[in-house]
């Protein structure tokens, strides 16, 4: 049986990859996107707008929130279709929803009683993530985010559980998350940082500030204006290295994948080939369209200026 530490490592390795509802390690292709869109069980969720948002993940592995856990349990590494029946195996009894995996768990409880060990699942309504230590959760958050890291202490998680198909016997305790601070930092509860007149309190204990903010749907800031709650989630980062030389038609490799990933992330469609690492005609058209839309020289060459714009 796989272990909680292996689950934690697996989830960490998937940060930066994609999110499609109903997937558990599939490779994002236009053909499979259409399979999902026309399926009887989930097709209604795949509206034209949702498909557009999903296309930023063409060419990379995709998961939904509970699918990240299923992919690990079922042995999927890089591509479910290629590995299914060989090294990865679907188990119908384990094909449950985010809420269903909580219902199946034998050990579970309110978030206030969470055992701080790697691989523990954290839950809110119809969503699940994996605690990986250091006040961090890895979660497949949605088509606009992909698989990300987020702060556990600011995540409004409601419950925890131990995955029923994971061995926690070798669990290693990690440092508990400390939410109270007595170092002189004060936490201000305001509608916005700029609107000082809206402040409803100043607190030395973060927990108290968060509770006050929740009652009026306000924001918690440090005394220097850094937003603490709600957490500002990080959007998925590109899993490919930024180019260090000119990229143009005919180029191949991860530098091209970096360009393609960022084009898709900015809604420049690469429907036919996706992120394939080959700078062909489809990528050339998308680059030129991006350059024109951003008042750059339209030459199809990705140099420092185009790279800078793609990073914005």
Walk me through the structure.
The protein has 312 residues and is an alpha+beta fold. It has three domains: 4-161, endopeptidase fold (from Nostoc punctiforme); 187-229, no CATH class; 254-311, Muramoyl-pentapeptide Carboxypeptidase, domain 1. Helix content is 29%, strand content 17%. It has ten helices and 13 strands. The strands form three sheets. The chain has a six-stranded antiparallel β-sheet. The chain is globular and about 55 Å long. It starts with a helix and ends with a helix.
Judged by helices, strands and strand pairing, the structural class is alpha+beta
Q: How many β strands by DSSP?
A: 13
What do the pLDDT scores average to?
88
Q: Spans with pLDDT under 50 lasting ≥5 residues?
A: 177-183
Strand order of the largest sheet: 4-9-5-6-7-8
Taken as a percent bin, the fraction of beta residues is 15-25%
Q: What percent of residues adopt helix (DSSP H or I)?
A: 25-40%
CA radius of gyration is: 22 Å
Number of helix segments? 10
Tally of separate domains: 3
| Named CATH topology of the largest domain | endopeptidase fold (from Nostoc punctiforme)
Please identify the top-level CATH class of the largest domain: Alpha Beta
Largest sheet: 6 strands, antiparallel
What is the CATH architecture descriptor of the largest domain? Alpha-Beta Complex
So what's the overall shape? Answer: globular
Termini distance? Answer: 44 Å
Order of helices and strands: HEEHHEHHHEEEEEEEEHEEHHH
